[in-house]
Every structure is written in C-alpha cells, then in structure tokens.
Amino acid sequence: MKQFHYLIMRKLDTEKQKAAQYSLSRNPFLGTNISRLILFFLIFIVGCGVSYDKDDYIREFKQFVDEVKIGYKSYTVADWQIADEKYEQYSVQEYEIFSDDLTGEDMKIIGQLKGTYTTLKIRVRTNDLLEQSKDIIDQAEGVIDDVLESIKK
User: Fold this and answer.
1) Do residues 91 and 58 touch, judged by C-beta distance below 8 A?
2) Cα–Cα distance between 147 and 67 in angstroms, integer?
3) How far apart are CA 119 and CA 124, in angstroms?
4) Distance between CA atoms of 46 and 69, rounded to whole angstroms?
5) How many CB atoms lie within 10 A of CB 98?
6) Are 115 and 91 in contact (CB under 8 A)?
7) 109 burial level (CB within 10 Å; 0-12, 13-18, 19+)
8) In the chain, where does DSSP find H-type helix?
9) CB under 8 Å to 52, separation ≥6 — which residues?
C-alpha cells in the first residue's frame, strides 16, 4: 500500500515540476480549475496502472547517478540543489519504501551509488577550495608586490 501511495505522490510531484516549467500564458489549458481537475484524474488513472518496484528504483537511482557523473563539473549551485533533492529522494525516501524487499546484492549496488554521488560532491568541493586558495594566493601576492613597491618609493 505504501508503494501505491508513493507512486501516486511521485507522479504528482513529477507533473507539478513539468507544469512549473511552462508558463500559464503559453499553456492556457493549465490555467483553469476544471482543466487541472481533469489533469489530476488522468494522472491518477495512469498512475494506478503503472507499477514501480525495487528494480525500477535501483535502475532510476543508477541512471540519476550516471547523469550526475556526466555533468557534475559544470553544475551550478542551483543544479546541485536539484541533484541533492533527487539524491535525498532516492537514498532516503525510496530506500525506506523498498528496504524490506532489497537483497544483499541490491544493498551493495545502492551503497555503491551513494558512494559515487558522495565522491562527486567531494571532488567539486575540493576543486572549489583549490580555486579559492589560488585566488587568495594571487591576492596575497598582489598585496606583497604593492607593499614592496611602496617601500621602494
């Protein structure tokens, strides 16, 4: 039952995100309450016919981590916020739903996915710290040069 409830809530969250991407001025269909009600029932009906099991969860979690692995170097702060929310969804919320059904091999795969995501975040933070350190060193060199120049005068 909790899988069914989760599936409906997940479908609704996905549809909310999609709807937020389009402005009401471009899509007047979403602007009316009746249309929203119809859309909700369509989503509900479609959601009832779709099953989401532990294999789907693991496959989607892996796909998410692979996407982050490909693009993490160019992620902005906003991109990382979105990625962190998805990571939280996969590593905590969905994990809790399917934890009773997971085998030892499944747990190993999920552990590797969590480790990969954490490693990518550490790499980005380390690179940011190195860049900040370089900037501080460059600034310090500039100050030292200015002080030495003013002493020479």
Assistant:
1) no
2) 49
3) 9
4) 32
5) 20
6) no
7) middle
8) 2-21, 33-49, 54-71, 77-88, 95-98, 104-152
9) 3, 6, 7, 10
pLDDT tens, position by position, for the chain (153 residues)? Answer: 566 666 666 666 666 655 554 544 455 555 566 666 666 666 666 556 568 899 999 999 999 999 999 999 999 999 999 999 999 999 999 999 999 999 999 999 999 999 999 999 998 887 666 676 666 776 767 767 776 777 776
Q: In this structure, how many other beta carbons lie within 10 angstroms of the beta carbon of residue 31?
A: 11
| Amino acid identity at 29 | F
User: What's the whole-model pTM score?
Assistant: 0.57
Structure confidence at residue 50 (pLDDT): 65
Count how many residues are written for the chain: 153
Q: What is the dihedral of CA 98, 100, 102, 107, to 10 degrees?
A: 90
Query: SS3 of 61, please?
Result: helix
CA neighbor of 35 nearest in space, from 47, 50, 19, 59:
19
